[in-house]
Design a protein that fits this description.
CATH architecture of the largest domain: 3-Layer(aba) Sandwich
CATH class of the largest domain: Alpha Beta
Helix content: 40-55%
Distance between the termini: 193 Å
Oligomer: single chain
Radius of gyration: 53 Å
Number of domains: 2
Shape: elongated
Strand content: 5-15%
CATH superfamily of the largest domain: P-loop containing nucleotide triphosphate hydrolases
Order of helices and strands: HHEHEEHEHEHHEEEEHHHH
Number of helices: 11
Mean pLDDT: 81
Number of strands: 9
Largest sheet: 6 strands, mixed
Strand order of the largest sheet: 2-3-1-4-5-6
CATH topology of the largest domain: Rossmann fold
């Protein structure tokens, strides 16, 4: 008993100067997060001229630089722009991605492909950063799309086929929030019917849009209420219009004004509250935990990685790498052998074709050679005939010249009987001889009379 009392007397007591506990961890996380800053990326999908840029300017109460898009693009281009925003002491790196030329083409079957490729490219960049030996995930700029505002044109009575196909392709890769753009062009009753029709078509076609979370009791009530207002009917404007005694953002018409922040006029305030104030962090978490994880899992499975083998044993990363490398080398050798065999077959086919062409050319050459010899023989025969004809002609010509000489000599002898008669007879004889000689010269076969 004395020993126990002595121990109690030796105990020391420490007075606490303040509160000690781990309930300060949230404050530490908040301070650290504020110091690092946040990033938020919005994808705006909609036809040109539907009001995407105006709504973004209205949503963040600033004027973003954005060139007016043309309606004559031959394909869809994605144009990202990053801005540094600050509210109080919180820094936000905001990236807005516009789909330039969406819905402007005649053939719209592949309009969604550039959007899917852009989203997958951002996932791929983040995955590459994760797989690096020296990673910097906290300092790198996260460009993954956290929210997709899909702008639905108010014209028509339902969704277009392009809208359904695009949203169906995007729902597994991004958080889709459908909005009806330029809602001031539709009256209230038609707008309510359009909302019901759109939600009905989305459900019937299996399109999964983003639902505001109701697990957190702090926001469960407001999120449940806002889920019933989807899709939001919004109006955007950066113009200040004087209504009563104050300036408000509104669109001014001859018959009145549409106030952007008046919930009786549109759902802009609901969209801003849900997107920026209440559920921005949940959108970021859903992107990482659901969409990115799905992409990461599929990509790693394509690379040959798996959690467990068929025997439910743990796997070695080195063994998986070696097996995948061996499989890749085997496949590479197989493809190389196939290409080599294909090359050999192509060479053999080319050789056979060349031989066939050579044979055809040889036969053609022999045929032309025979034709040349026959033509040469014919020309030689004609040449001989022509030479014989020329020799005969020359003989006749000589004989004709001889006769003409004799006729001239005979005509010069004097006749004693009658001078005039002699001259006339001599002239007639000379003319007759000349005509005969001329006929002989023109007709080689004609008979030349003697004397």
């Amino acid at each position: 008993m004395s020993f126990q009392i002595r121990q109690n007397e030796e105990k020391r007591t420490i007075e606490l100067n303040g509160h000690v506990g781990f309930d300060s961890l949230p404050d530490q996380l908040v301070s650290k997060s504020v110091a690092q800053g946040f990033s938020f990326n919005i994808l705006c999908v909609g036809e040109t001229g539907v009001g995407k840029s105006t709504l973004m300017n209205t949503l963040f109460n600033t004027t973003f630089e954005n060139e007016e898009a043309s309606h004559y693009g031959n394909k869809v281009h994605l144009h990202p722009q990053t801005y540094e925003l600050q509210e109080s002491n919180v820094n936000l790196k905001l990236t807005i991605v516009h789909t330039v030329g969406f819905g402007d083409q005649i053939n719209r079957e592949e309009s969604f492909k550039p959007i899917l490729e852009y989203i997958d490219t951002q996932f791929e960049k983040y995955l590459e950063e994760e797989l690096k030996i020296k990673r910097s995930l906290f300092s790198c700029h996260d460009t993954r799309i956290h929210a997709c505002l899909y702008f639905i044109a108010p014209s028509g009575h339902s969704l277009k086929s392009l809208d359904l196909v695009t949203m169906k392709k995007l729902d597994s890769k991004v958080n889709i929030i459908p909005v009806i753009a330029k809602a001031d062009t539709v009256n209230r009753s038609e707008l309510d019917k359009l909302k019901i029709k759109i939600m009905s078509e989305l459900v019937s076609n299996g399109v999964q849009i983003y639902q505001f979370p109701t697990e957190d009791e702090a926001v469960a009530e407001i999120n449940s209420s806002m889920n019933t207002h989807l899709p939001f009917a919004v109006v955007g404007s950066v113009e200040n219009v004087k209504v009563g005694n104050k300036l408000v953002k509104a669109r001014l018409y001859p018959w009145g004004s549409v106030q952007v922040e008046n919930e009786n006029h549109c759902d802009f305030v609901k969209l801003r509250e849900m997107l920026v104030r209440v559920n921005m962090e949940d959108l970021r978490e859903q992107t990482h935990a659901r969409h990115y994880e799905l992409y990461r899992r599929c990509k790693l499975e394509e690379m040959g990685f798996k959690d467990t083998d068929p025997d439910s044993k743990s796997f070695s990363l080195q063994e998986t790498y070696e097996a995948k490398r061996k499989e890749f080398l085997t496949d590479l050798q197989r493809k190389e052998e196939e290409m080599r065999q294909m090359f050999v077959n192509k060479v053999k086919e080319a050789e056979a074709e060349l031989k066939e062409k050579e044979k055809e050319l040889h036969e053609r050459f022999e045929q032309l050679k025979r034709m040349h010899q026959e033509e040469k023989k014919t020309l030689e025969e004609k040449r001989r005939n022509l030479e014989e004809e020329m020799n005969a002609f020359n003989r006749r010509k000589v004989a004709a010249e001889t006769l003409m000489g004799q006729a001239v000599q005979g005509g010069s002898q004097p006749f004693k009987k009658d001078k005039d008669k002699k001259k006339r007879i001599g002239a007639d004889a000379v003319c007759s001889d000349i005509v005969g000689v001329t006929a002989c010269m023109t007709q080689p076969d004609a008979h030349i009379p003697a004397g």
